Every structure is written in structure tokens, then in C-alpha cells.
């Protein structure tokens, strides 16, 4: 999916969760900030689509551009490290809700990104470097060997455009309901 689709889905899920759990506004804002950046963080690796943003900022210092797309940044190992970091924050001494909510939003959005990418044509290497994946030079990434073709989407295809618009509608409704709840 494109960056804007990942961000839209992430914000739709986070805003719905905040609405259902009655989060106060002070705690919800850091959650949204973390969710925004976690939604596109896995694609800052060597993929054609998103590395240009980080490369423009860091230039040759961007070590992520040398990692093949959908390899190490698209694994459950990173999500496990983020969850571990979230639960270790009180031991480090950071009991502040600000830092914990930023990390929580980042972690949830990172995981949502991987789930959405799993349904794309390329799939996700959940346990890279272990598993049965092959390198595809067309996409410059590793791909799953798929048995069924009915459950995946094409990046920037009609399904993704529809899905993004639906997420934006859900965000608008959720924020209206959050506005009524908070103010």
C-alpha cells in the first residue's frame, strides 16, 4: 500500500480505539503522533517507494537504504522489540504517559502496516531470514510463494483507493464523535 493508505488505516484504527476506550485528549494526542510515524516506518528501508524521504534528509548516512525492501523491517522481530521496549519503559524510569503513548501508537501502527502489506501481491516475510521466500528483481524485494491469488491487492489499485476513502470516512466519523466526547 501507499504511505497515505497506511496512515489512513492506522489513524482509523487508533481513533476508533481511543473512542471506545474513553482515552483523555492529553493521552490520545501522543498516541496519534506515534501512530502516524509507525504507519510508514517499515517502508523506510531500501524500497523504491519511501526511502527517498529519509535519503533526502540523511543523504548517504541513511543505512536503511541498503536493506532490501520487505526483509528485516517487515518482520515480527521488530514488532517484538517494540513491544519489549513499551513494557520496559517503567523500568527505565520513563513513566510519563507521553513517551509510552508515542511508543504504543508507533508499535500498533507498525504491526498494522505489516498486516496490510501481507495482503499485497508481494506479501510479508514474517520471520525473515527464515522461511520460504524468493528474491524478485522486478520489485527489488523478497516475495512469498502464494498458492491462492484471490486474497491480495495491487499497490495503488482500485481496491486500495476504495479502502483509503473508507478509512478517511471512518476517521471523520470517529473524530466527530471524539469531539462530542471530549468537548
Largest beta-sheet characterization: 2 strands, antiparallel
Mean pLDDT: 80
Shape: flat
Give the helices and strands as they follow along the chain: HHHHHEEH
Q: Tally the structural domains.
A: 1
Give the strand order, joined by hyphens, for the main sheet: 1-2
Beta strand count: 2
**Number of alpha- plus pi-helical segments:** 6
Give the helix level as a range of percent. 55-70%
Radius of gyration: 17 Å
Beta-strand percent range: under 5%
Unreliable segments of 5+ consecutive residues: none
Computed structural class: mainly alpha
Q: What is the CA-CA span between the terminal residues?
A: 35 Å
Task: List its traits.
single chain, mainly alpha, 2 strands, YdjM-like
Structural notes for this entry:
The chain is mainly alpha-helical. The protein has one domain. It contains six helices and two strands; from the N terminus they run αααααββα. The chain has a two-stranded antiparallel sheet with strand order 1-2. The longest helix is centred in the C-terminal third of the chain and has 25 residues, at 158-182. The mean pLDDT is 80. The chain crosses the membrane at residues 7-25, 71-90, 97-116, 161-180. Keywords: Membrane, Transmembrane, Transmembrane helix. This is Metal-dependent hydrolase.
